[in-house]
């Protein structure tokens, strides 16, 4: 039996805390790049965009409490959070769907510096297969299972049209992929042991549109809002 790194929730860390750890890590990397050796909880919370009391509670789950009057050691906290998130090892990633989004994801340089290796980019379009993107030759979707096995892919990124997403997801799961990042505008059905994170840019834009409309109502008064409902 092979061992694996315990998931944060198995170590008693709440899911809400897990969701905020990447925010703290991003803020800490920014501080590190500026040569900041230590940071107070208030300063780190401000940079990360969260409440300082919530930040202190979150970090206490890692056993990190900082030093009174000094704060947190930036480099050590980066290590602690990276270790908890499993980023002290490299994770092999396959992107399925070599359209505009898939190519942009493959070309993003930030993955490699955060512990993720883009092992393959796959597509079903014969006109796309064989093209080079970010140093990778686009492979045919028929090679998915071989890619997962040969490259030891842990995470699959689905950037296909909605109609193809579930089928691609099923094949990823069947090949042994344990986590899916889904950019397709559809809800995926997966076994309980598989983790899925969904990124729907259109939903995020709709939420922003809601807030923009409310701000416009506030500027123009209730009469304008009533007109919208007619």
TrEMBL record:
Superkingdom: Bacteria
GO biological process, one term: negative regulation of DNA-templated transcription
CoA-binding domain: residues covered: 86-187
DNA-binding region per Swiss-Prot/TrEMBL record: 23-62
Gene3D superfamilies from the UniProt entry: NAD(P)-binding Rossmann-like Domain (3.40.50.720), Winged helix-like DNA-binding domain superfamily/Winged helix DNA-binding domain (1.10.10.10)
GO molecular function: DNA binding; DNA-binding transcription factor activity
Tagged with keyword Transmembrane helix: no
GO cellular component: cytoplasm
Subcellular location: Cytoplasm
Ligand binding (NAD(+)): 97-102
UniProt entry keywords in alphabetical sequence: Cytoplasm, DNA-binding, NAD, Repressor, Transcription, Transcription regulation
Pfam families to which the protein is assigned, alphabetical: CoA_binding, Put_DNA-bind_N
Family matches, as InterPro entries: CoA-bd (IPR003781), NAD(P)-bd_dom_sf (IPR036291), Rex_actinobacterial-type (IPR058236), Rex_DNA-bd_C_dom (IPR009718), Tscrpt_rep_Rex (IPR022876), WH-like_DNA-bd_sf (IPR036388), WH_DNA-bd_sf (IPR036390)
Subunit (UniProt): Homodimer.
Function: Modulates transcription in response to changes in cellular NADH/NAD(+) redox state.
Family: Belongs to the transcriptional regulatory Rex family.
Name of protein: Redox-sensing transcriptional repressor Rex
Organism per entry: Actinorugispora endophytica
Source lineage: Bacteria, Bacillati, Actinomycetota, Actinomycetes, Streptosporangiales
């Amino acid at each position: 039996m092979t061992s694996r790194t315990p998931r944060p929730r198995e170590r008693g860390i709440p899911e809400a805390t897990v969701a905020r750890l990447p925010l703290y890590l991003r803020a800490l990397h920014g501080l590190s790049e500026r040569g900041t050796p230590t940071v107070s909880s208030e300063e780190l919370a401000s940079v990360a965009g969260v409440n300082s009391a919530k930040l202190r509670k979150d970090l206490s789950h890692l056993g990190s409490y900082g030093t009174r009057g000094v704060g947190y050691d930036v480099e050590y906290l980066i290590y602690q959070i990276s270790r908890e998130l499993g980023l002290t090892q490299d994770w092999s990633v396959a992107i399925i769907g070599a359209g505009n989004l898939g190519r942009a994801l493959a070309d993003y340089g930030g993955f490699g510096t955060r512990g993720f290796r883009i092992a393959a980019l796959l597509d079903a379009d014969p006109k796309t297969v064989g093209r080079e993107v970010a140093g990778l030759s686009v492979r045919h979707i028929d090679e998915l299972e071989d890619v997962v096995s040969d490259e030891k892919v842990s995470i699959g990124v689905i950037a296909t049209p909605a109609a193809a997403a579930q089928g691609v997801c099923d094949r990823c799961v069947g090949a042994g992929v344990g986590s899916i990042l889904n950019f397709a505008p559809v809800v995926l059905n997966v076994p309980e042991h598989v983790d899925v994170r969904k990124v729907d840019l259109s939903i995020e834009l709709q939420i922003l549109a809601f807030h923009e409309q409310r701000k416009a109502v506030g500027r123009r008064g209730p009469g304008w809002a009533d007109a919208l409902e007619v």
